[in-house]
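Checklist before submission:
- one chain only
- standard amino acids only
- sequence pasted in full

Submission:
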Amino acid sequence: MLTSPKTFVSVMAIALVCQITSLQAQVPAPAPGTMLESDAAAAATYPISSQEQQPLTNSASLPVTCNITLIGLPASATPAVAAAGRRLQAATNTSRGLSTADIHCTGSYNVTIVGGPALQTFASGWTGVNFNLNNALPQGTIYLSGISILFENSRFVNLTEYGDGSIMFQDSTVAFTNTSFVGNIQATAGAIFANNTVLSIDNSNFTNNHGFQSGAIQMLGSNSMMYVNGTTFHNNTGSQGGAIYMVNGTSLAVEDSTFTNNTALTGGGIFMSRVSDTYIYNNYFYHNNVSQAGGGINSANCSGDLIDNEFVSNFATSGGGVWQTTSGNYVVFNNVFMGNNATIGSGGYEMTNCSNCDFSLNQFTFNKGQQGAGLYLGESTGNVDSCYFDNNTANAFAGALFMDADTGNVTNCAFENNAAMSIGGAIYGQRGTGNIESSSFAGNSARYGAAVYWNDWDGLINTNNALAPADLLFDASTGNAGGIQGTDSFGTGNTGSPGSTSSASGGVTNANGVTRDASSGASTPSSTTSTTIATPTESTPSSSSSGVTPSTGSGINT
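Returned file contents:
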């Protein structure tokens, strides 16, 4: 598992060593960039980032450094012939060409840049680069294979030629710094398509790009590694990964970057599948939208860390902030999930089939969903520790936390003002094992079980504050509630033995030792009059909160 940016960069040492400065603070969602017009005169500066970053440096200099500007013409334009010299001649055999095309490369040895017919060249005056025309490639496309190259202060704008990407790489080591990709439309990835490549992107901008699979970047291949730092992804669209798509890679690290207003079928910001190590750190995901799963991130079969990120106002069918399945070791630490929405599953974070996942010091506030509005854990092993759940709302079950066939504990958490329209205002648990320890509940509401509703669950509840008997309810069919332990109105002792078999409540005891049993309405032993706890008649939810299978919900298509 990746533990730090430096760890990731050291793996890439064959190409470069990056030194970065962490952001001092997250910035709000940036204003949309203005798309460049077809003529070069209108090509003003694009907002790259409002965040100050230390420039990318490399201790082992890349052999070739290129400054590239490609500005495309709209479909209706008539291409003009550019001047001689280092400028490239726009295509004359198509209605779409380049209004500006300028490539200048320097390096210690020659490389080959292969471009489509839009890149017909007057090659005199170039240093360290050979240009070969390849009519088989789409207009405006650059293809690089088997080289190491750095792009600085470059622009790729309005390239609309329906290739795999505006620039493509195979078996290469590539770095971009201070580079913009704006308004490009391609068949696969709007900006960059790479296979078995080591890719580094620093302080760059991807705006208004569209790919029919991934909006901005697509990475494939078991040897692929990608590192992104201080970069903005705004208003990109694709089917899988509005901004980034990575499948079968070795490692993915994304830091100090913003993902805003990106749109996809699944994975509004990032779509990643079968990536061995992932490190997602200190990023801002705002108002990304998908019609299926994972408004901010969609992840399948990945291990790694999700640390210090903010997910705000993202939308999905399931997993408004994050949708994740079939993970190995995964750490979710000190993230904020606020105001995310889902129509079927969890609004904040939906995790299923995780063999070892830990959620610590996360905040889930004002999220909305059908089940587990803040956090849904399904068929997973892991713990929820020192997390804060406030004002989350579920249309059915579990206003804050849904634990479905899990093994794990909830420790040192606070649940305040969460609501479920049916059962489990704060927590709903079914068919699992684990304890609720040293946690507090205040102001939660539901028709049944305002604080906790357990259905066929073995565990102990130890709260930090007093709870009314009606706040704790257990399924009428099994009553397998475990023990209830309190520090105030329920006293300090175990008040219901594990596996208690009452037909309704499993056993709840208050401070004076009266066992409340809804099956008979009587108390044993009895020193005062017992209070009957209502037996819920609502149907319990299915084992899947989202009802979305990987083929339709995750959008995984590899």
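Reviewer check: The first strand starts at residue 64 and ends at 72.
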